[in-house]
Amino acid sequence: MRTALSRPTAAGAAALRPDRKAAILLAAEKLFAQHGYHAVSLRQIAADAGVPLALVSYYYGAKHELFHAIFEHWSPTIGQRLALLDIALSQSERPDLREIVRAFIEPVVALRASAEGEYYAMLVARELVYRTPDTERVLKEYFDPMANAFIDALQVALPHATRAQLAWGYQFAVGALLHHLADTRVERLSAGQSCASDPVAWPLLVDFIAGGLHAALPMPDRAARTAASPAQESRRPTR
User: Fold this and answer.
1) Is 84 left (phi over 0), alpha (psi -120 to 50) or beta?
2) pLDDT, position 101
3) Average pLDDT score over residue span 213-223
4) Domain holding 26: CATH number?
5) 163 in a structural domain
6) pLDDT at site 3
7) Is the pLDDT assigned to residue 222 strictly greater than 70?
8) Do 100 and 135 belong to one domain?
9) Which carries the bigger pLDDT value, residue 15 or residue 80?
10) Which residue numbers delimit the HTH tetR-type domain (predicted)?
């Protein structure tokens, strides 16, 4: 529940500025991404944003409401992913698996490479790995509907796979994406030839996930061969 401030004085009215509200949100994104939700206090967020503590509660309420506000602020990113997914599905009766994967990862890795969205992408990676009740609420509200849309799309591209197999495939894809968003080790392992936000990695990640799904989940030709194998075995002469 938000705490109401008393009627602002002239000085108080000057303090209630939209740029301060945005500064609070950015400070919360950064600190939550760097240290985790439970390790950060509203007082620390206020100090980082350069605002009085009372303003944090005035604009966003309790800490869990501020956490929720971050994901609400970036919810258009989910819309971008779903819009790209719609384009992939509209191209043919059997959509290209690679285009589905590209819709899934491209808006997010673009955020990771931008100054504006870097902390949000890192926050998503951190909080979806280290689950909390607050994270679960965000997952159910923002990410589960999108997950189901992508699993439905995978069902169209891979009709011989079961829902359970597709759900596992989706989760493995999420794991690869989250690791990429959170990782900074590649700079050291590549001897400085690459960095965490290098756009060169995007098509590699798309191919990696699409290749893994293609290899692990039943494909039409593979399913046909599997179905034919018992019949062929029964016709094989006994010795």
Assistant:
1) alpha
2) 98
3) 77
4) 1.10.10.60
5) yes
6) 46
7) no
8) yes
9) 80
10) 18-78
DSSP assignment of 45-74: HHHHHTS-HHHHHHHH-SHHHHHHHHHHHT
Dist. CA 129–CA 113, nearest whole Å:
20
Residue 197 has pLDDT above 50, yes or no: yes
Average pLDDT estimate for 11-15: 47
| Amino acid of residue 136 | E
CB contact at 8 A, 209 and 176: yes
CA dist., res. 198 & res. 113, Å (int): 7
Do residues 65 and 84 both lie within one domain?
A: no
Helix axes 53-60 and 63-73, enclosed angle (nearest 10)? 60
Tokens representing 110 are 């673009």
Nearest-5° angle of CA 63, CA 69, CA 70?
Answer: 100
- Are the C-beta atoms of 40 and 47 separated by less than 8 Å? no
What percentage of the chain has pLDDT greater than the value 90?
57
